[in-house]
From TrEMBL:
Pfam families linked: CRAL_TRIO, CRAL_TRIO_N
Region (Disordered): 279-300
Alphabetical list of InterPro entries matching this protein: CRAL-TRIO_dom, CRAL-TRIO_dom_sf, CRAL/TRIO_N_dom, CRAL/TRIO_N_dom_sf
Name listed for the protein in its UniProt record: Phosphatidylinositol/phosphatidylcholine transfer protein SFH1-like isoform X1
Coiled-coil blocks: none
SMART domains recorded: CRAL_TRIO_N, SEC14
Gene designation per UniProt: LOC103502218
Record-linked SUPFAM superfamilies: CRAL/TRIO domain (SSF52087), CRAL/TRIO N-terminal domain (SSF46938)
Domain CRAL-TRIO as annotated: residue spans: 79-239
Length: 338
């Protein structure tokens, strides 16, 4: 590494003091007053190499300016039926907070279909949630708990994961790459629950491809993970799919306020209302309908390799299943002949 972490932060801060004026405003939206923690995140993402972290951060700021990311919370997805369709097919929500004050985000990996809207809508929605988290949720949590809170916890529900996930890999890789390049090191821990066999099969081959710092953040829990998660959060903050003793989940809940994926959940109501209010404040003209177009990044070598590996494993799994079914059918027909 060559230099200590404090020295690396000092050097990166000095470099960032020299960035051109057009980047300084968006940089404030990135760090929200927590400059040291932000510099540390980008340094971690580049293994504490100051020059690489500087390039990454400047590239991020240019991406934000070029794509008007600072204005993303003024651009609601309209009409509301389109947004509801996005929410029903891109399952994510804030279920509560850990005892340390970290926001707990639930993500329905297995049951998200991404088939109700265009790629641009899903990307727009994802970035809006990121921006709302970083500019509203985390600063509020920091104020409440009296210390910097700049990361969150994610609980990934694998219920329903199947071969159809192949059709989602490209979009998920785009979203993951946006996060890796522009919102690095924002997740403290990933808890993976309700794991089916197909995930276990993929995980064995994908895990070695991940960087060590990423692997250390991932915990695969038994069943719904309820007992383990209750060690770090209260019952009220558990995602709805973790409140059962066994495994299993559902896309919808009869109580919209309970299901943190639902547009009727307080988190999504607050987020959507905030965006609409900001839109009205920013412009006296009627709010335009249609998605926001953001330049989509090319996945890096690591992301491409992981996506390719997942595809291969899913194909293998599919072929094995097909062979088992074929053999089962042959045996059944053979039995009938006898």
């Amino acid at each position: 590494m060559g230099i200590g972490s404090e020295e690396a932060i000092r050097q990166l801060r000095a470099l960032m003091d020299q960035v051109e004026e057009r980047l300084k405003c968006t940089f404030q939206n990135v760090h929200q007053g927590y400059l040291t923690e932000t510099l540390e995140r980008f340094l971690k993402a580049r293994e504490w190499n100051v020059s690489k972290a500087h390039k990454m951060l400047v590239d991020c700021l240019n991406w934000r300016v070029d794509n008007e990311i600072d204005m993303m919370l003024t651009k609601p997805i309209l009409p509301v039926d389109v947004y509801r369709a996005v929410r029903d097919s891109q399952l994510i929500g804030l279920s509560g907070y850990s005892r340390e004050g970290l926001p707990v985000f639930a993500i329905g990996v297995g049951l998200s279909t991404f088939d109700k809207a265009s790629v641009n809508y899903y990307v727009q929605s994802h970035i809006q949630i990121n921006e709302y988290r970083d500019r509203i949720i985390l600063p509020s949590a920091s104020k409440k708990y009296g210390r910097p809170i700049t990361t969150c916890v994610k609980v990934l529900d694998m219920t329903g994961l199947k071969l159809s996930a192949l059709s989602q890999i490209k979009l998920l890789t785009i979203i993951s790459t946006i996060d890796d390049l522009n919102y690095p090191e924002k997740t403290n821990t990933y808890f993976i629950v309700n794991v089916p066999y197909i995930f276990s099969s993929c995980w064995k081959v994908v895990k070695p491809l991940l960087q060590e710092r990423t692997r250390k953040k991932i915990q695969v829990l038994s069943g719904s993970g309820r007992d383990e998660l209750l060690k770090i959060m209260d019952y009220s903050s558990l995602p709805h799919f973790c409140k059962r003793e066994g495994s299993g989940s559902s896309r919808h809940s009869s109580d919209g306020a309970e299901n943190c994926y639902s547009l009727d959940h307080p988190f999504h109501q607050q987020l959507y209302n905030h965006i609409k209010e900001q839109a009205v404040q920013e412009s006296s003209r009627p709010i335009k309908q249609g998605s926001v177009h953001v330049s989509l990044p090319e996945p890096g070598a690591e992301g491409t390799e992981i996506a390719r590996t997942i595809e291969l494993e899913l194909h293998k799994y599919g072929n094995a299943n097909a062979n088992r079914k074929s053999n089962g059918l042959s045996n059944s027909l053979g039995s009938l002949k006898i």
